[in-house]
């Protein structure tokens, strides 16, 4: 398996994003949250993921961009935890929801726990 975050995996569809926020289910592991929905688009990739950090918690774009990069990197290195149990295409939105500035290692631990929690829900 490749540890990449290709253009095909990026969530860009406005309709899918709207669907995530209206019908999506959620899994949380403080300070991270994963909202997901089964993707019904034809020829959809197995996984589409978007990343978001709230302006409410980080006023400066530099800080928001840093945490988005960290979230994308932790996803990229641990996406096998999400992909392996999936049978149908899914769309995800990955949020950082705290004023706390956790270190990369702490965020990666929480990401792994969050993905495992998602897998338990899927069973």
UniProtKB/TrEMBL annotation:
The keyword Transcription does not apply. Its EC number is 3.1.26.5. It catalyses: Endonucleolytic cleavage of RNA, removing 5'-extranucleotides from tRNA precursor. Pfam families: Ribonuclease_P. Keywords: Endonuclease, Hydrolase, Nuclease, RNA-binding, tRNA processing. GO terms for molecular function: ribonuclease P activity. It is an enzyme of class 3 (hydrolase). Belongs to the RnpA family. PANTHER family: RIBONUCLEASE P PROTEIN COMPONENT. Consists of a catalytic RNA component (M1 or rnpB) and a protein subunit. RNaseP catalyzes the removal of the 5'-leader sequence from pre-tRNA to produce the mature 5'-terminus. It can also cleave other RNA substrates such as 4.5S RNA. The protein component plays an auxiliary but essential role in vivo by binding to the 5'-leader sequence and broadening the substrate specificity of the ribozyme. This is Ribonuclease P protein component.
């Amino acid at each position: 398996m490749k540890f990449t975050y290709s253009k095909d995996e990026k969530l860009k569809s406005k309709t899918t994003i709207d669907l995530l926020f209206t019908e999506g289910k959620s899994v949380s592991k403080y300070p991270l949250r994963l909202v997901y929905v089964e993707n019904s688009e034809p020829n959809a990739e197995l996984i589409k993921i978007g990343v978001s950090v709230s302006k409410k918690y980080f006023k400066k774009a530099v800080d928001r961009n840093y945490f988005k990069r960290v979230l994308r990197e932790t996803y990229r290195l641990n996406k096998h935890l999400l992909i392996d149990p999936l049978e149908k295409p899914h769309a995800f939105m990955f949020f950082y929801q705290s004023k706390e500035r956790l270190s990369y290692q702490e965020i990666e631990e929480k990401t792994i726990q969050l993905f495992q929690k998602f897998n338990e829900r899927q069973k």
